[in-house]
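Example with several molecule types.
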Amino acid sequence: MSGAAVDREPLRAHFAAVIGGRRDLLPADHVSLVDEGILDSFGLAEVVALVERAYGVKVPDADLALKTFDSIDKIAAYVAARR
Amino acid sequence: MDLIGLHAALFVAAAVVLVALPWPGPVRRLLLLAANFAFLWSFDPLAPAIFLAVSLLGWFAARRAAAGASVLELVLIGAPLLVPLFLPKLPGLGGAATGDAAAGVSNVVGARMAMFIGASYFTLRALHVVLDARRTRQVHLGLFDFLVYNSFFPMTVAGPIERADHFQQTYARLGRPTRDDLGVGVVRLFRGLLKKVVLGGIALAWAAPITGFATAAGAESAGQAWLALYAITLYAYFDFAGYSDMAIGVSRLMGIRLAENFDNPYLRPSIAEFWRGWHLSLSFWIRDYLFLPMSGRSASAIRPHVAALGSMTLCGLWHAPNPGWVLWGLLHGAGLSVHQAWTVWLRKRFALKKKLASSIPVRVVATAMTFHFVALTWVFVAIDPWRLGPSMRYLGVLFGLS
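Resulting structure tokens for the full complex:
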């Protein structure tokens, strides 16, 4: 699943809010959010809550890891695979 | 017996040669298991029995978890596993033991005590297998190989809390080290000895004004107190990272690659980064099995802060259920929480924290602040973790208040 069909707007809006609403500074979808200092363990719970709320996807405990949600591309692919 | 001394050297040499002989695979693993049990027995004749009880219980719980057992059933099966985690560290049983580098800070750790500390490590490894089985619905190792993994003698005394899946990656190469493995193993073994015995010994000697503060003539001036604090901080690293180097080196001589346990923790620009360099196997355990489940799936920005405080306090309790270690855990949890609040503010204010964090002057100041924060938290466990009074008096001396 590539996640190409997944609407990424809620994800971009969330991560833009994390960096003070600066959409112009939001990295490309394939770039690691952890490496860019935008996502860490503290922010993971919010992202998981967003994925469950916005996409109706249930995230099991086994997937509670930064590597699963490390970029917008990875999150979209995860959502597509879990639907 | 730990990995230091003549008996240990002979044991390690014999074990490395024994598993390297051209045995069929099952015989090689059986010989390693026998060596692991002999190593446990060297601490206390009861140690192999305690290990077997913990491991068999853990294995059974893991199998039930993989089969989809309820949380209640797993708690009922696994509850006895909490005993070796905490009970031996109570006074009068195991003594006022500590779980890692600072063990030697305020206690002379006898053989029986060391076994009990080891017990908390093999119990954490067993719990990890149970918790992973619940998540993945699989148990990756069979019972025999699980026993070999959990009793692997280089990890017995002070960890690491090697993950079973990582151990399994090189398990097939047991007894067949490459030339590279042998070279790296020898270098790591001697690097560990240098850290633990030489550098750790020097640092501990300089730390006398803090280690003897509660019972003997301790630091009397602020300068002396700061010097001793730096010394005990370095000792904690050299002692524990040195032992981890030795464990990694001995394992490598047998073809097994353990995960790294330390990565320059005192050169980190934040407390969150410190925990990405200090006792990594414990840090990952706390993050994956305590912090992330406690954080849950909440949109609340507060809950991860509560999770950080809760999980680090439990981390302190695991080291030893006494006021010093609990306060140590609380302070690290609070440090993580405050750092996160600062990070969130930086992100909103400067958009990308990464750019600010790459500034060399900012990194130097942040690293010095982090080092001093960590050093000050050692005060509560270095003097007498069962009483906070001497630690508070020492802080008074440090800051010229007494």
